[in-house]
Amino acid sequence: MYLKQLSVFIENREGRLEEVLDVLKKNNINIVSLSLADTSDYGLLRLLVTEPEAGRKALSENGFSAMLTDVLGVKLRHKVGCLQELLEVICKSHINIEYMYALETGNDDASIVMKTSNLEKATELLKETDVEFVTQDEIRETV
Amino acid sequence: MIWNESKECMSRDEMHALQSARLVKMVERVYYNVPFYRKKMQEMGLELGDVKGIEDITKLPFTTKSDLRDNYPFGLLAVPRSEIVRVHASSGTTGKATVVAYTRKDLDLWSECVARAFTMAGVTREDTIQIAYGYGLFTGGLGAHAGAERLGATVVPMSTGNTKKLTTMMKDFDVTAIACTPSYLLHIAETLEEMGDLDKVKLKTAICGAEPWTENMRKQIENKLHIHAHDIYGLSEVLGPGVACDCEYHRGLHVQEDHFIPEIIDPDTLQPLPAGETGELVFTTITKEGLPILRYRTRDLTSIDYTPCECGRTTARISRFKGRSDDMLIIRGVNVFPSQIESALLEMGEVAPHYLMIVDRVNNLDTLEVQVEVEERFFSDEIKELEKLTKKIATVIQHAIGLAVKVKLVEPKTIERSMGKSVHVIDNRKLI
């Protein structure tokens, strides 16, 4: 149900992001989606990759602080108001969105990746609607 | 002007005789009243009769900062608690403060020393002086305050923190003298400059101390404010500000030798060094009652000149400091040991004890950044959690050293490790 997101701590230093990507490349791991959050001193790279566990291991071995986090991937139709309707369901139950980014999944739909303050409850609420979740297998088979 | 000619200008022979007599009495006093010193002397096989004069001072045991800490808070007092009228304290290396105590007579000799120092800087009873050192447990504020009052000057007890109010009062009260840290004085000068008020103040002299500064900084201060800037030295373990100060000739700081005997030793062999050679400064107090100290190792590196000064004073002069024989840093006038930060981080248990302190001076104010490695087990995918961690580390360090710090999270294993003396500090201030 959940997607395994690979999160990496990156100092604001020249070339660090490139080095992360280099490690993934050398391990034949494909990036399906990413988001980069920046502060004045460091950045937080969040990735959806084809092999999250292998990615984490490779990055750790290369001296990076990396971890796997459960996030939710939800498919959305290309239609005005779709995301708003989805969030309405979650927000009514006082669940916060910690962060969110987009995921390309095809011509007819797009997907959203998010982490919420209560992942289980958000999932239950969404299950009651007609939304479709993105699975880890789909991420792996994207390529 | 010389505040106390009979003491500050006596011949070297007279000074020797006075120091010898006072030292013998002082050794007797600590032997009978301070078990710590009696034990140390007994262990060394030293008997009271062995110290007959100043030439025997090298036979006496040393005292270090950790001796004060180990006897926290009042273990080294040579008088009953009822005789103590004031205590001061500075932050210690392991959270415990270094406590010093004064009898009424101690406060009296302290203000005498400060009055002598301020007189060297040209301050008289006609002057209005702002004391812009912190008032409180730190010896700077109250120490300078009492000396200025004894001198008869008009004292404005500013303390620190409100530069705007300070500059306003400097103008409105026709302030002619100020006592503060040199970096703060430069900051004040810049504030005056920004407001276009540099020519509206009547300042003529400054007595700066509590942190190391260079001859260049003195020139900068003097040129910007058109004043004379003097260097005052002191440490709470020995007295507080006023142990030494430089006169109008700026050829070293005159030590108040009738109260404190200075020595220079090799910090490695602990053997005395001849006059003129650079080594660690050591002080023995010979008049203090509450907390007399034998051969206190200041860790400050300097040399001594016993030749008479053009100003007429004959007291020994210590040269501008050339560094320290330990890793203590003075940041915004606060003594900081890297080990304080290390133990604070270890106690917190949430981060690796690998850290790097970066000290800098921005707009004449010291800044301290502490870099801490983010280990995988403390890492989070949420910025807000990382910010929470940063804040927590900053609070813990601030609590340990008494200074606000900027904490920067860095990647694991990026801070250099070495088998020997690891580099924990980068000081970009270039003070020496």
Your description of this structure?
- The complex is a heterodimer of chains A (143) and B (432).
- Chain A is built from 5 helices and 7 strands, in the order E-H-E-E-H-E-H-E-E-H-E-H.
- Chain A is α+β, with helices and mostly antiparallel strands.
- Chain A has 2 domains: 3-69, VC0802-like (2-Layer Sandwich), CATH 3.30.2130.10; 70-141, VC0802-like, CATH 3.30.2130.10.
- In chain A, strands 1, 2, 3, 4, 5, 6 and 7 form a 7-stranded antiparallel β-sheet that branches.
- In chain A, a hairpin with a 3-residue loop joins strand 2 (31-38) and strand 3.
- With 432 residues, chain B is α/β, with parallel strands linked by helices.
- In chain B, strands 4-3-5-6-7-8-9-14-13 form a 9-stranded mixed β-sheet, sandwiched between helices. Chain B has a 4-stranded mixed β-sheet with strand order 19-18-17-20.
- In chain B, helix 5 (104-120) crosses helix 6, helix 8 (182-194) runs parallel beside helix 9 and helix 10 crosses helix 11.
- The mean pLDDT of chain B is 92.
- The A-B interface holds A 5, 7, 9-11, 16, 37, 39, 41-42, 44, 46, 60, 63-67, 69, 98-99, 115 and B 374-376, 379-384, 386-387, 408-414.
Structural class computed from helices and strand pairing of chain B: alpha/beta
Low-confidence segments of chain A = none
Instruction: Kindly estimate the percentage of residues of chain B that lie in beta strands according to DSSP.
Output: 15-25%
The residue fraction in helices of chain B comes out at 25-40%
Mean pLDDT of chain A: 92
Number of helices of chain A: 5
Largest sheet of chain A: 7 strands, antiparallel
Our Rg estimate of chain A from Cα atoms comes to 16 Å
Overall 3D geometry of chain B?
globular
TL;DR of this structure?
With 143 residues, chain A is an alpha+beta fold. Chain A has helices spanning 16-26, 52-61, 82-92, 119-127, 136-141, and strands at 3-11, 31-38, 42-49, 66-77, 97-104, 109-116, 132-133.
Write the layout of secondary structure elements.
The complex is a heterodimer of chains A (143) and B (432).
Chain A: E1 3-11, H1 16-26, E2 31-38, E3 42-49, H2 52-61, E4 66-77, H3 82-92, E5 97-104, E6 109-116, H4 119-127, E7 132-133, H5 136-141
Chain B: H1 5-8, H2 12-33, H3 35-43, H4 65-70, E1 84-90, E2 98-103, H5 104-120, E3 128-131, H6 139-151, E4 154-156, H7 163-172, E5 177-180, H8 182-194, E6 205-208, H9 215-225, E7 228-235, E8 240-246, E9 253-255, E10 260-265, E11 279-285, E12 296-302, E13 304-305, E14 317-318, E15 329-331, E16 334-336, H10 338-348, E17 355-362, E18 365-373, H11 383-401, E19 406-410, E20 425-427
Parallel strand pairs in B: 3-4, 3-5, 5-6, 6-7, 17-20, 18-19
Antiparallel strand pairs in B: 1-2, 7-8, 8-9, 9-14, 10-11, 11-12, 13-14, 15-16, 17-18
Helix pairs in contact in B: 2-3, 5-6, 8-9, 10-11
